[in-house]
Amino acid sequence: MFEEENKANDTITTAGFTLxxxxxxxxxxxxxxxxxxxxxxxxxxxxxxxxxxxDASSCDVKVxxxxxxxxxxxxxxxxxxxxxxxxxxxxxxIVSAGSTMQAHVFLWHSSQGQRILNHVCNYSQQLFKQPxxxxxxxxxxxxxxxxxxxxxxxTRLNNCILVLFGTSSGQIVMNxxxxxxxxxxxx
Length: 187
What we know:
Order of helices and strands: HEEEEEEEEEEEH
Shape: flat
Distance between the termini: 50 Å
Number of helices: 2
Number of domains: 1
C-alpha cells in the first residue's frame, strides 16, 4: 500500500519546470507565493528580492520589480492575510528579513489584476538588542558581529500585528507594528 501511495505522489510532484535564466547573482535563500501562486517573491544572498508574475497557462515568468534596500542577504519571508478591503481587494502584510538584523514590512494588495507592493516600515539593527553573553555559553565562543535574523513570522491578533524574528543567538524577538501612520496604512 505504501508503494502505491508513493507512486501517486510521484506523479503529482514531477510536473514542474526550472527557469533557465538566473534571477539573482547569488543563491536564492527564500521564496514566498502570493495570489494562489500567480506571484512569487524570491530573496537572495545578493541582497535583493524580486517579485515575479507567473502565467499559469503558459508557465511564463516575468520579473515585476526588484527591491534592493537590504544591506545583506534576504533570508526569510513571512506573510499574514488581512481582512478584505472595502473594494474586495485581497491584502497581506509581508515581511522580508535579512541577515544583518534588518527587516522590511510591506503591504500587498491584489484586486482585479492590479498588484501593488507598498513599503510600510523597516527594522534596523539598532532596534534589536543583542544578548549579553560571556562567550562561554555551551563551551563556544560567541561572535557578537554574527547576530543575524534567521527566520521571520507575522501574525494578526485582533487589530494587533506582531512581527517575530528568530535570531542566530537562539532568541525570538517580537515587535508590534504600533506607529499610527503604519497602522493606518495596514488597516
